[in-house]
């Protein structure tokens, strides 16, 4: 599904990723741990083609659908949640209102609310960001610090949704400082220039 070989990324003279390789077959649930500035967002942006590698290759399965939450997702601030989600999903012709309403319900977000996105709280905005990353049932889902701003109950719901998506065959990569023990990870990596695989029990 994804094959990253000898990836290097420099910003001017600052090297962030060095000789990074990663091979995904599909249906992995991966945790990437890295300190601030280790390059978690940079790696995800490279996978999504938002950034170009300095050298190395990223090969993806043909027509791979990728859903991503990276840093602050861009929304149409003067529009409602429903408008934003419909707009984003319609870009790929993947609008499934029933599934989106289900996700909103699970996260206690009112899909039909007339509130504009600019008035959402940090946690509400984060939930909207998670929903837009998974609502098209994308094969590969990249989530950068997904639980930022979420309360304990919402984190619990998030873990359930992720485990369920994994059971359904999706491949998910979560980059975060905090390890979430309720998520049934298949692989744990530390990011320090390269990805170092952690031995799991
Ligand atoms: N567009 C850019 N131009 C210059 N430097 C950049 C750029 N984007 C990222 N960097 C640098 O690359 C390094 C990695 O940044 P990145 O945002 O990928 O880290 P991160 O692991 O996601 O950090 P955090 O945990 O704080 O979110 C940082 O030193 C950052 O300053």
Automatic annotation (TrEMBL):
PROSITE patterns, per database record: ABC_TRANSPORTER_1, ABC_TRANSPORTER_2
Parts of the chain that traverse the membrane: none
Coiled coil (residue ranges): none
Domain of life: Bacteria
Originating organism: Massilimicrobiota timonensis
Pfam family, one: ABC_tran
Occurrences of domain ABC transporter (ranges): 2-201
Protein name: ABC transporter ATP-binding protein
A Gene Ontology molecular function term of the record: ATP hydrolysis activity
InterPro entries per the UniProt record, alphabetical: AAA+_ATPase, ABC_transporter-like_ATP-bd, ABC_transporter-like_CS, ABC_Transporter_VariousFunc, P-loop_NTPase
Keywords: ATP-binding, Nucleotide-binding, Transport
